[in-house]
Amino acid sequence: MMTSRTSAEQANILKENALIKRAAKGESQALKELFIKYLPMTLAELKGYNLRHYDDDWRQEAYIAFYKACCTYNPGVLVRFSTYYRCCLSNHLKSIMRRELAAKRSANHKSVSLDDDLHYLELVTASTPHEVQQTNEILEEFIKELSPFEYVCYQVLKGEMTMEMLLIQTVDDLKKANRGLGRVRYKFRKFIKKWKNECEN
């Protein structure tokens, strides 16, 4: 009986991993099916933050975090997807709240830090809806140059994911994690320099 239950559980894990893989490739039906499965957990997590505006906007943010979790999850690491997604969602919500708090604190601050490479492009271009869209398109071009591992590093540098989550992906290989972060910083600086030169010419 124990073997039967173990086999059934393993079959469910394999089925879920297949759905996660399809969702990561952009299959909306697979993503929707998985998100519905984890909706009770999602709502409980949102409720735990005592959000003042607990509405569809926050659920949409959870959906974004869920998709990111599908894209970056590594089935080869002995961490359940539910645990990984909860961590992704928690960090995504915290990141949003940090940005909102920072925006309030710097509402009257007009200076732009040119040293902050990963936010420079967004800060100097994203002042109107059209420019926000343009910025996103430019960043999408940069993301296309990244490997899946480098994309995780990029999310860490942006504050969308934590170093702990990166170490999960590298199986606690700190040197590999730091090399990845350094590589993405270098690539991004080259990308920004090229973009600035094209704008000036």
Automatic annotation (TrEMBL):
Protein name according to UniProt: Sigma-70 family RNA polymerase sigma factor
Matching Gene3D superfamilies: 1.10.1740.10
InterPro entries, per the entry: RNA_pol_sigma_r2
GO molecular function: DNA-binding transcription factor activity
Gene Ontology BP terms: DNA-templated transcription initiation
